[in-house]
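DM between two lab members

TW: hey, do you still have the tRNA-binding domain-containing protein entry open?
JB: yeah, one sec
JB: this one, 193 aa:
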Amino acid sequence: MIKQLISNSIKSSLNTNTKLRSIRSFGSACCGGNKNNTTDSKKIVEEPKIEEISIEDFFKVDLRVAKVISCEQVQGSKKLLKLSLDLGFKKQPKQEQQQILPTTETTETKDVEQPEQIKDIRTVYSGIKLYYEPDQLKGKNVIFVSNLKPREMKIGKEVVVSEGMVLCASSEDNKKVLYTTTDGEADPGMKVF
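TW: and the structure you got?
JB:
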């Protein structure tokens, strides 16, 4: 549920035609609060309802620090940037000792070498091209939803896969959209609570 809320929030914040609005009374501000004409002086627009969630729902979302290792414009798209993100190292399952059956009088055991830890690199397509140049993002630490299901996106004739979502903040009028970032001491892969 929180994934859907985050996704809907980001989608609406990146859509430059959509503006969040709230209940405002223009009559009292502009006309001195004329009590005889209050219904005509108010413009009411409902905000999207955001449901409260439990702490258990919140902890279903795995937020991590990710370092932008590369960023490039996506050919054929007016909104998308392609980001490669470093999330630290992937945890490898532990290998158990294998026992070699005796062929002679002795029994030999051989330790299976642990595989090297490999970097967890994810590719994300983000609709933030109108607000950032690729060079502005390289080397930055961002907040990343790491357990979001990969999503196929069609760009022209090509189908690409986005492997998560980078969180953003935006102003009500969507004129200012910013990636959420951390200070320089955060390491890729650190969990965000």
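TW: got it. Helices lie at 2-14, 26-30, 38-41, 55-58, 134-137. The first strand starts at residue 24 and ends at 25.
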